[in-house]
Amino acid sequence: MKKLISLGLALCLALSLTACGGTSSGGQGGGGSQSTQVLQDGPVTLPAIFFTGMTEEEIQTSAQEQGFSQCTVNQDGSVTYTVTAEQRGQIMEATKASLDSSIADLTSGEDADKIFTKIEYNDDLSEISFYANPDTYSPNAAYAYSFCTLGAYYQIFSGTAMDAVNVTVHFINGSTNEELQTVTYQDMLAGTADTAASSSSSAAQ
What we know:
- By secondary structure, the protein is α+β, with helices and mostly antiparallel strands.
- Helix content is about 40%, strand content about 20%.
- The radius of gyration is 17 Å and the shape is elongated.
């Protein structure tokens, strides 16, 4: 689906930051410190939805460019990488750096669209909250798709099993703290994020 293009772009951005050795020392959007859990060498499997629109050759080429020692495209479209503990840490850090950069652009950058006043997330990116200007906000699943992807990506590389990943994106009225829209990673996988957005919007009216 065309709406999933943003997912691939977010994924490529995180990988590119890692390849360039990008690091982050803080969380502009309120992200906590990096997890203190012990990371291990081993396989990491990402779901097929992360690779929508990519050929197997493109996936393999990207893996080689990022320095992964092995990459297997599975029959269900998911992709398994062999990664070191150091690579896990770098990717997690780069993902938060990408998230912070996106938050800065959306809330205070030159191209900020005045929709969101602030965006916050917790340490493992399982909860991400957009505080919206009620005068300019309208339900848009594209933001949720992109941020759910980054949250899931971070969790998987931190060692969370693919089927245990849990990311919830909240859209909140910045004036009243009323919940306007909620989209989860499971909505994204099921292709129902638009439905969730519409339902939340109708309930809030």
